[in-house]
Amino acid sequence: MKGFRLEKRRILGGRNEFNEIFNHGRRVSSKHFLLLTQKAEESKFAFTVSRKIGGAVRRNFAKRRLREILRLNQERLPEKIHIILQAKPGFERTNFELLSEEFVVLLKKIKPIN
């Protein structure tokens, strides 16, 4: 199942990249997500989950769900963009299909910036 993995080079890392996106990126939110975006030379992604979600087990579960939602919607993602996908409280208790649909709606809101 090698083709389904998110490559390490496509994962945002480093405090400077995060701070740049948090301070100057575009924010789009819904009931269960906060999506921060910024134009870039290549697409990279990051996932954040607050302690408001729960303990480490719940936060890790939420991160796995975020990665899977992104993986299933790769073809809908804009090119050359940095995305930070943040889970809001209540995310971990929501139906996966509903979360996927909500993510697609958020993607439609960010499409015009490209």
Task: Write up what this structure looks like.
- This protein has helices spanning 15-24, 56-72, 96-110; strands spanning 26-29, 33-39, 44-49, 81-87.
- With 114 residues, the chain is of the alpha+beta class.
- The protein has a single domain (2-113), classed as Ribosomal Protein S5, domain 2.
- The chain has a 4-stranded mixed sheet, with helices on both faces.
- β1 (26-29) and β2 form a beta hairpin.
- α2 packs across α3.
Gist of the model:
The protein is an alpha+beta fold and 114 residues long. The protein has three helices and four strands.
List keywords for this structure.
Ribosomal Protein S5, domain 2, globular, 3 helices, 4-stranded mixed beta sheet, 114 residues, alpha+beta
Poorly predicted residue ranges: none
The CATH architecture can be named as 2-Layer Sandwich
Oligomer: single chain
The strand count comes to: 4
The major pleated sheet works out as:
4 strands, mixed
Tally of domains: 1
Q: How many angstroms does the end-to-end distance come to?
A: 31 Å
The computed structural class is alpha+beta
Can you give the helix content as a percent range?
25-40%
* Strand ordering within the main sheet: 1-2-4-3
Q: What portion of residues belong to β-strands? A: 15-25%
CATH topology (fold) name: Ribosomal Protein S5, domain 2
Name of the level-1 CATH class: Alpha Beta
